[in-house]
Design a protein that fits this description.
- This protein is an alpha+beta fold.
- It is built from 8 helices and 7 strands, in the order βααααββααβαβαββ.
- The chain has a 7-stranded mixed beta sheet with strand order 1-2-3-4-5-7-6.
- The protein is globular, with a radius of gyration of 16 Å.
- The relative contact order is 0.17.
Length: 195
């Protein structure tokens, strides 16, 4: 198999295609489908979640994708954070009231695991379900981790899908604990020290 070509998003069409593949990749994600269990609601609201949670990666040149848009990763560089106001508004407007309390409590716990020092944060990564198991996730991780190591920075993420923990461990991430509140699925905060 040839090595996947990883590109950095540079245009508005890249952004739309990346959001599209992240929606497909997260179709069965436990946390995403807990928040939006109805398929139509998921399709309508998850793109806005992607923009609020990881969209700043587009402006900071840290959104990358596999050539052909079969996978993508939205990395936030040190001292760049998700759009908290947009996230709160989106959840309040689109997530059922019974889930909202647990949702916000999960995000509160997630913030407690973030390193206090400047670090790279991976809020969203995914590969089209029809293309999984072909090394695209590894290629996306390696692409940015080279820069992370060169900058001698920590990398941090939360895995919302237990199937992905092994992938992250192979790339040097260590499990810090488990977040599970009320009806939420388990979320695994993970940290990687520079190599």
């Amino acid at each position: 198999m040839t090595k996947p070509i990883i590109k950095t998003a540079a245009t508005t069409s890249d952004e739309a295609s990346i959001i599209d593949v992240l929606v497909r990749a997260n179709w069965e994600d436990p946390a995403a489908r807990w928040a939006w269990p109805d398929s139509q609601q998921f399709l309508v609201h998850f793109p806005s979640f992607v923009r609020a949670f990881g969209g700043k990666a587009f402006a900071h040149g840290s959104a990358c994708y596999v050539d052909g848009y079969v996978g993508a990763a939205l990395w936030l560089p040190p001292n760049i954070y998700p759009d908290e106001n947009a996230l709160i508004a989106l959840v309040q407007q689109t997530v059922s009231e019974q889930i909202q309390k647990d949702f916000f409590a999960v995000f509160e716990q997630m913030s407690r695991y973030h390193p206090s020092e400047p670090h790279w944060y991976l809020p969203l990564m995914g590969v089209d379900p029809s293309q999984q198991g072909k090394g695209f996730g590894s290629a996306l991780l390696q692409h940015t981790l080279i820069q992370v190591d060169r900058d001698n920075k920590l990398a941090y993420l939360e895995s919302s899908n237990p199937r992905n923990i092994t992938l992250y461990k192979r790339h040097g991430f260590e499990l810090l604990g488990t977040i599970q509140i009320g009806t939420s699925p388990s979320i695994a905060p993970m940290l990687r020290r520079p190599k």
